[in-house]
Amino acid sequence: MSQTPSPRRRPPWPLCVALLLIPVIGVGVFTWCGGIAASASKGDPVKVVLGAASGTRTVQAGDTLQVSAEGGVLTEVTVTDPGGRRLPGALGDGGSVWTSSEKAAPETKYSLVARTRNAQGGVGTTKESLTTAQAAKLNKLVVDPGRQGSVVGAGRPITVTFDFPVTDREAVLRGLSVTSDDRAPGSWDWGKDDSGKDRVTWRPDRPSKPGTRITLRAELNGVDSGDGRYFATDYDLNFTIGRTCADSAAARVCGKVHVGDPVVVTASSVRGKDERTIGIGDWNAGVPAGGETAPLASSSRPLSEPSVTE
Known about the structure:
Elements: E1 16-19, E2 29-33, E3 36-37, E4 47-52, E5 64-70, E6 72-80, E7 89-92, E8 97-103, E9 109-118, E10 123-131, E11 137-138, E12 141-144, E13 150-152, E14 158-162, H1 169-174, E15 176-180, E16 186-192, E17 198-204, E18 213-218, E19 229-230, E20 235-241, E21 243-245, E22 270-271, E23 277-279, E24 283-284, E25 287-288
Parallel strand pairs: 11-19, 13-20
Antiparallel strand pairs: 1-2, 2-10, 3-10, 4-5, 5-8, 6-9, 7-8, 9-10, 12-14, 14-17, 15-18, 16-17, 18-20, 21-23, 22-23, 24-25
Protein backbone atom coordinates (compact mmCIF):
# COMPACT_ATOMS: atom_id res chain seq x y z
CA MET A 1 0.00 0.00 0.00
CA SER A 2 1.48 3.37 -1.03
CA GLN A 3 1.49 6.38 1.26
CA THR A 4 0.97 10.03 0.32
CA PRO A 5 4.32 11.87 0.67
CA SER A 6 4.51 14.31 3.54
CA PRO A 7 6.96 17.17 4.06
CA ARG A 8 7.44 16.05 7.66
CA ARG A 9 8.76 12.73 8.80
CA ARG A 10 6.19 10.94 10.95
CA PRO A 11 6.55 7.67 12.77
CA PRO A 12 4.63 4.86 11.03
CA TRP A 13 1.20 4.03 12.45
CA PRO A 14 0.86 0.53 13.93
CA LEU A 15 -0.79 -2.00 11.70
CA CYS A 16 -4.27 -2.93 12.96
CA VAL A 17 -6.10 -5.87 11.53
CA ALA A 18 -9.56 -7.08 12.51
CA LEU A 19 -10.57 -10.60 11.59
CA LEU A 20 -14.26 -11.41 11.96
CA LEU A 21 -14.78 -15.14 11.71
CA ILE A 22 -18.12 -16.75 10.94
CA PRO A 23 -20.04 -16.67 14.29
CA VAL A 24 -20.77 -20.37 14.73
CA ILE A 25 -20.39 -22.48 17.85
CA GLY A 26 -16.73 -22.98 18.66
CA VAL A 27 -15.44 -19.97 16.69
CA GLY A 28 -14.70 -16.63 18.32
CA VAL A 29 -14.12 -13.10 17.12
CA PHE A 30 -10.48 -12.03 17.18
CA THR A 31 -9.09 -8.49 16.99
CA TRP A 32 -5.37 -7.81 16.76
CA CYS A 33 -3.23 -4.66 16.75
CA GLY A 34 0.53 -4.83 16.32
CA GLY A 35 2.89 -3.65 19.03
CA ILE A 36 4.57 -0.25 19.09
CA ALA A 37 8.31 -0.16 19.70
CA ALA A 38 9.41 2.57 22.07
CA SER A 39 12.62 3.10 20.09
CA ALA A 40 12.78 2.00 16.43
CA SER A 41 16.51 2.77 16.35
CA LYS A 42 17.20 -0.18 18.62
CA GLY A 43 16.11 -2.93 16.28
CA ASP A 44 12.84 -4.32 15.02
CA PRO A 45 9.79 -4.41 17.28
CA VAL A 46 8.85 -7.67 18.95
CA LYS A 47 5.91 -9.48 17.40
CA VAL A 48 3.34 -10.50 20.02
CA VAL A 49 0.62 -13.08 19.37
CA LEU A 50 -2.38 -13.82 21.61
CA GLY A 51 -4.26 -17.08 21.19
CA ALA A 52 -4.95 -20.48 22.67
CA ALA A 53 -2.19 -22.55 24.25
CA SER A 54 -2.99 -25.23 21.67
CA GLY A 55 -1.61 -22.89 19.02
CA THR A 56 -4.88 -21.79 17.42
CA ARG A 57 -5.76 -18.13 17.04
CA THR A 58 -9.40 -18.74 17.97
CA VAL A 59 -10.03 -19.47 21.65
CA GLN A 60 -12.89 -21.69 22.71
CA ALA A 61 -14.48 -21.78 26.14
CA GLY A 62 -12.23 -23.67 28.54
CA ASP A 63 -9.04 -23.11 26.55
CA THR A 64 -5.90 -21.79 28.20
CA LEU A 65 -4.72 -18.44 26.84
CA GLN A 66 -1.14 -18.02 25.64
CA VAL A 67 0.89 -14.96 24.67
CA SER A 68 4.01 -15.57 22.58
CA ALA A 69 6.82 -13.26 21.49
CA GLU A 70 8.93 -13.44 18.32
CA GLY A 71 12.12 -11.45 17.93
CA GLY A 72 12.47 -10.73 21.65
CA VAL A 73 11.01 -11.53 25.06
CA LEU A 74 8.03 -10.58 27.16
CA THR A 75 8.88 -8.59 30.27
CA GLU A 76 5.35 -8.02 31.61
CA VAL A 77 1.94 -9.39 30.59
CA THR A 78 -1.49 -8.27 31.82
CA VAL A 79 -4.69 -9.93 30.60
CA THR A 80 -8.03 -8.62 31.91
CA ASP A 81 -11.71 -9.37 31.34
CA PRO A 82 -14.40 -6.70 30.79
CA GLY A 83 -14.80 -6.30 34.55
CA GLY A 84 -11.11 -5.48 34.99
CA ARG A 85 -10.33 -8.80 36.67
CA ARG A 86 -6.89 -10.13 35.81
CA LEU A 87 -6.46 -13.58 34.34
CA PRO A 88 -3.60 -15.14 36.31
CA GLY A 89 -0.64 -16.60 34.48
CA ALA A 90 3.14 -16.84 34.34
CA LEU A 91 6.07 -16.33 31.96
CA GLY A 92 7.99 -19.31 30.65
CA ASP A 93 10.72 -20.38 28.22
CA GLY A 94 12.92 -17.47 29.18
CA GLY A 95 10.17 -14.94 28.61
CA SER A 96 9.17 -16.05 25.13
CA VAL A 97 5.69 -17.17 26.24
CA TRP A 98 3.09 -16.35 28.89
CA THR A 99 0.40 -18.92 29.76
CA SER A 100 -2.72 -18.39 31.83
CA SER A 101 -3.21 -20.61 34.87
CA GLU A 102 -7.01 -20.42 34.56
CA LYS A 103 -9.23 -21.39 31.66
CA ALA A 104 -10.89 -18.78 29.49
CA ALA A 105 -14.58 -18.04 30.01
CA PRO A 106 -17.05 -18.34 27.12
CA GLU A 107 -18.07 -15.24 25.16
CA THR A 108 -15.63 -13.03 27.04
CA LYS A 109 -13.46 -10.26 25.63
CA TYR A 110 -9.94 -10.37 27.06
CA SER A 111 -7.62 -7.37 26.71
CA LEU A 112 -3.85 -7.77 26.62
CA VAL A 113 -1.08 -5.30 27.47
CA ALA A 114 2.35 -6.84 26.86
CA ARG A 115 5.69 -5.12 27.45
CA THR A 116 8.59 -6.46 25.40
CA ARG A 117 12.35 -6.17 24.87
CA ASN A 118 14.18 -7.11 21.66
CA ALA A 119 17.70 -8.45 21.22
CA GLN A 120 19.13 -4.92 20.85
CA GLY A 121 17.58 -3.75 24.11
CA GLY A 122 14.72 -1.81 22.54
CA VAL A 123 11.50 -1.87 24.52
CA GLY A 124 7.93 -1.74 23.31
CA THR A 125 4.30 -2.19 24.31
CA THR A 126 1.67 -4.25 22.51
CA LYS A 127 -2.08 -4.09 23.03
CA GLU A 128 -4.43 -6.76 21.74
CA SER A 129 -7.94 -8.01 22.40
CA LEU A 130 -9.63 -11.33 21.84
CA THR A 131 -13.20 -12.56 22.31
CA THR A 132 -13.64 -16.22 23.14
CA ALA A 133 -16.18 -18.46 21.46
CA GLN A 134 -19.65 -19.24 22.74
CA ALA A 135 -19.92 -22.42 24.81
CA ALA A 136 -21.81 -25.23 23.10
CA LYS A 137 -23.43 -26.35 26.38
CA LEU A 138 -24.37 -24.34 29.47
CA ASN A 139 -25.37 -25.11 33.04
CA LYS A 140 -27.34 -22.88 35.40
CA LEU A 141 -28.47 -23.02 39.00
CA VAL A 142 -31.22 -22.14 41.45
CA VAL A 143 -30.41 -20.78 44.93
CA ASP A 144 -32.53 -21.02 48.08
CA PRO A 145 -33.22 -18.58 49.74
CA GLY A 146 -34.07 -17.24 46.31
CA ARG A 147 -34.78 -13.60 46.95
CA GLN A 148 -32.20 -10.84 47.21
CA GLY A 149 -32.40 -8.98 50.51
CA SER A 150 -34.83 -11.43 52.10
CA VAL A 151 -35.03 -12.13 55.82
CA VAL A 152 -34.87 -15.80 56.87
CA GLY A 153 -34.81 -17.81 60.06
CA ALA A 154 -31.68 -18.52 62.08
CA GLY A 155 -29.87 -21.67 60.99
CA ARG A 156 -31.46 -21.63 57.52
CA PRO A 157 -29.13 -23.49 55.10
CA ILE A 158 -28.19 -22.25 51.63
CA THR A 159 -28.91 -24.70 48.82
CA VAL A 160 -27.60 -24.47 45.27
CA THR A 161 -29.38 -26.79 42.82
CA PHE A 162 -28.00 -27.35 39.32
CA ASP A 163 -30.00 -27.94 36.15
CA PHE A 164 -27.46 -30.47 34.85
CA PRO A 165 -25.16 -32.94 36.64
CA VAL A 166 -21.98 -31.57 38.20
CA THR A 167 -19.11 -34.00 37.68
CA ASP A 168 -16.31 -31.57 38.51
CA ARG A 169 -17.44 -30.74 42.03
CA GLU A 170 -14.06 -29.39 43.15
CA ALA A 171 -14.09 -26.76 40.39
CA VAL A 172 -17.57 -25.62 41.41
CA LEU A 173 -16.76 -25.50 45.12
CA ARG A 174 -13.71 -23.33 44.44
CA GLY A 175 -16.08 -20.70 43.09
CA LEU A 176 -18.51 -20.80 46.05
CA SER A 177 -18.00 -18.72 49.20
CA VAL A 178 -20.22 -17.66 52.08
CA THR A 179 -19.45 -14.73 54.39
CA SER A 180 -21.40 -13.29 57.32
CA ASP A 181 -21.17 -10.36 59.69
CA ASP A 182 -20.47 -12.68 62.61
CA ARG A 183 -17.94 -14.76 60.61
CA ALA A 184 -19.78 -17.95 61.50
CA PRO A 185 -18.09 -20.97 59.91
CA GLY A 186 -19.98 -23.54 57.90
CA SER A 187 -19.51 -26.42 55.48
CA TRP A 188 -20.75 -27.65 52.09
CA ASP A 189 -22.40 -31.02 51.52
CA TRP A 190 -23.40 -32.61 48.19
CA GLY A 191 -26.63 -34.47 47.61
CA LYS A 192 -29.72 -34.71 45.40
CA ASP A 193 -33.02 -32.87 45.48
CA ASP A 194 -36.39 -34.61 45.24
CA SER A 195 -36.20 -34.68 41.44
CA GLY A 196 -32.70 -36.18 41.42
CA LYS A 197 -30.80 -33.02 40.46
CA ASP A 198 -27.36 -32.36 41.93
CA ARG A 199 -27.49 -30.03 44.90
CA VAL A 200 -24.88 -28.63 47.28
CA THR A 201 -25.92 -27.29 50.69
CA TRP A 202 -24.10 -24.90 53.01
CA ARG A 203 -24.96 -25.21 56.70
CA PRO A 204 -23.61 -22.91 59.41
CA ASP A 205 -21.86 -24.54 62.35
CA ARG A 206 -23.99 -22.43 64.66
CA PRO A 207 -27.11 -20.27 64.16
CA SER A 208 -26.50 -16.58 63.60
CA LYS A 209 -28.17 -13.89 65.64
CA PRO A 210 -31.09 -11.88 64.21
CA GLY A 211 -29.87 -9.00 62.05
CA THR A 212 -26.80 -10.86 60.79
CA ARG A 213 -26.17 -10.29 57.09
CA ILE A 214 -25.02 -13.27 55.01
CA THR A 215 -23.62 -13.20 51.47
CA LEU A 216 -23.20 -16.02 48.98
CA ARG A 217 -20.77 -15.49 46.10
CA ALA A 218 -20.78 -17.99 43.24
CA GLU A 219 -17.94 -16.95 40.92
CA LEU A 220 -18.68 -19.55 38.27
CA ASN A 221 -18.45 -17.66 34.99
CA GLY A 222 -16.37 -19.84 32.67
CA VAL A 223 -16.25 -22.79 35.06
CA ASP A 224 -16.78 -26.21 33.47
CA SER A 225 -19.24 -28.14 35.65
CA GLY A 226 -18.25 -31.31 33.83
CA ASP A 227 -18.50 -32.82 30.34
CA GLY A 228 -17.93 -29.43 28.72
CA ARG A 229 -21.01 -27.78 30.24
CA TYR A 230 -20.11 -24.26 31.37
CA PHE A 231 -21.57 -21.55 33.55
CA ALA A 232 -21.93 -18.27 31.67
CA THR A 233 -22.28 -15.87 34.61
CA ASP A 234 -21.46 -15.23 38.27
CA TYR A 235 -24.18 -15.31 40.92
CA ASP A 236 -24.61 -13.61 44.27
CA LEU A 237 -27.19 -13.61 47.06
CA ASN A 238 -27.57 -11.41 50.14
CA PHE A 239 -30.01 -12.02 52.97
CA THR A 240 -30.48 -11.23 56.66
CA ILE A 241 -31.18 -13.52 59.60
CA GLY A 242 -34.50 -12.78 61.28
CA ARG A 243 -36.30 -14.16 64.31
CA THR A 244 -37.92 -17.60 63.92
CA CYS A 245 -41.04 -18.44 65.93
CA ALA A 246 -42.81 -21.74 66.46
CA ASP A 247 -46.11 -22.09 64.62
CA SER A 248 -48.14 -21.88 67.83
CA ALA A 249 -46.62 -18.50 68.66
CA ALA A 250 -46.79 -17.00 65.20
CA ALA A 251 -50.53 -16.45 64.83
CA ARG A 252 -50.36 -12.89 66.12
CA VAL A 253 -46.94 -11.44 66.85
CA CYS A 254 -43.45 -12.65 66.02
CA GLY A 255 -41.46 -9.72 67.38
CA LYS A 256 -39.33 -7.23 65.51
CA VAL A 257 -36.21 -7.78 63.47
CA HIS A 258 -33.53 -5.11 63.62
CA VAL A 259 -32.30 -4.54 60.06
CA GLY A 260 -30.44 -1.35 60.67
CA ASP A 261 -31.66 1.58 62.76
CA PRO A 262 -34.53 2.25 63.14
CA VAL A 263 -36.39 -1.05 63.05
CA VAL A 264 -37.99 -1.67 59.68
CA VAL A 265 -40.87 -3.97 58.72
CA THR A 266 -39.88 -5.83 55.56
CA ALA A 267 -42.45 -8.52 54.78
CA SER A 268 -45.22 -10.67 56.20
CA SER A 269 -44.72 -14.01 57.96
CA VAL A 270 -44.14 -16.87 55.56
CA ARG A 271 -43.88 -20.59 56.11
CA GLY A 272 -40.48 -22.01 55.24
CA LYS A 273 -39.52 -25.42 53.92
CA ASP A 274 -38.81 -26.60 57.45
CA GLU A 275 -42.49 -26.07 58.36
CA ARG A 276 -41.63 -23.18 60.67
CA THR A 277 -43.02 -19.71 60.27
CA ILE A 278 -40.50 -16.98 59.67
CA GLY A 279 -41.77 -13.87 61.43
CA ILE A 280 -40.65 -10.57 60.03
CA GLY A 281 -41.82 -7.32 61.57
CA ASP A 282 -44.57 -6.41 63.99
CA TRP A 283 -47.91 -8.12 63.22
CA ASN A 284 -51.54 -7.97 64.26
CA ALA A 285 -53.66 -10.81 62.86
CA GLY A 286 -51.31 -11.09 59.90
CA VAL A 287 -51.47 -7.41 58.90
CA PRO A 288 -48.44 -5.18 59.51
CA ALA A 289 -48.59 -1.85 61.25
CA GLY A 290 -49.97 0.72 58.82
CA GLY A 291 -52.82 -1.48 57.58
CA GLU A 292 -51.40 -2.54 54.19
CA THR A 293 -50.93 -6.18 53.37
CA ALA A 294 -47.22 -6.87 52.89
CA PRO A 295 -46.07 -9.02 49.95
CA LEU A 296 -45.15 -12.63 50.55
CA ALA A 297 -41.60 -13.72 49.90
CA SER A 298 -41.23 -15.60 46.65
CA SER A 299 -40.18 -19.22 46.39
CA SER A 300 -36.80 -20.30 45.06
CA ARG A 301 -36.00 -19.03 41.58
CA PRO A 302 -32.90 -18.63 39.39
CA LEU A 303 -30.89 -15.50 40.10
CA SER A 304 -30.38 -15.19 36.37
CA GLU A 305 -31.59 -17.02 33.30
CA PRO A 306 -28.82 -17.68 30.77
CA SER A 307 -29.93 -19.60 27.72
CA VAL A 308 -29.30 -23.32 27.78
CA THR A 309 -28.44 -25.55 24.87
CA GLU A 310 -29.18 -29.20 25.41
